[in-house]
Specification:
About 40% of the residues lie in helices and about 25% in strands. It has about 130 residues and is an alpha+beta fold.
Length: about 130
């Protein structure tokens, strides 16, 4: 079949991130938005905070929950990087993530060395053609 489209890669990453959160945290985000922008990949997760974290927050343990979430994000970061590199077939330069406990959203920004090989690179918003390998 050849190279995937950018949309197929975005869907594959979304599905695998959802599975990873379900497996590791017992919480499948209700929605994941995943988009490539030039040499960056942006992922937004809705409802990524676990029931345990919400219960602790309701009990007034905000500082404890913040510490727990920082540790969880740190642990998951390595697995996210491996997962994304496997899907796109390219190395990642940097991966940053943060969870807003008040809104239940997690944002992930991935910095790529080069764009993945896809059938439709022109579909990537703001693509810098220097980042596309022939």
């Amino acid at each position: 079949m050849g190279n995937p489209t950018i949309g197929q890669l975005e869907r594959e990453i979304s599905q695998r991130v959802s599975s990873l959160y379900n497996e590791k945290l017992g919480q499948r985000p209700s929605q994941i938005i995943c988009h490539f922008f030039d040499s960056e990949l942006v992922i937004s997760l809705e409802n990524s905070v676990t029931q345990t974290e919400r219960t602790l927050l309701d009990g007034g343990h905000e500082i404890l929950v913040e510490q727990i979430r920082l540790l969880l994000d740190k642990i998951i970061k390595t697995e996210l990087q491996i997962l994304i590199e496997k899907v796109i077939g390219k190395p990642i330069l940097d991966l940053m993530s943060n969870t807003n406990l008040a809104t239940g959203r997690t944002g992930i920004i991935v910095i790529l060395d080069e764009l993945p090989t896809v059938r439709n690179p022109e579909s990537i918003p703001k693509v810098n053609w220097k980042n596309v390998v022939d």
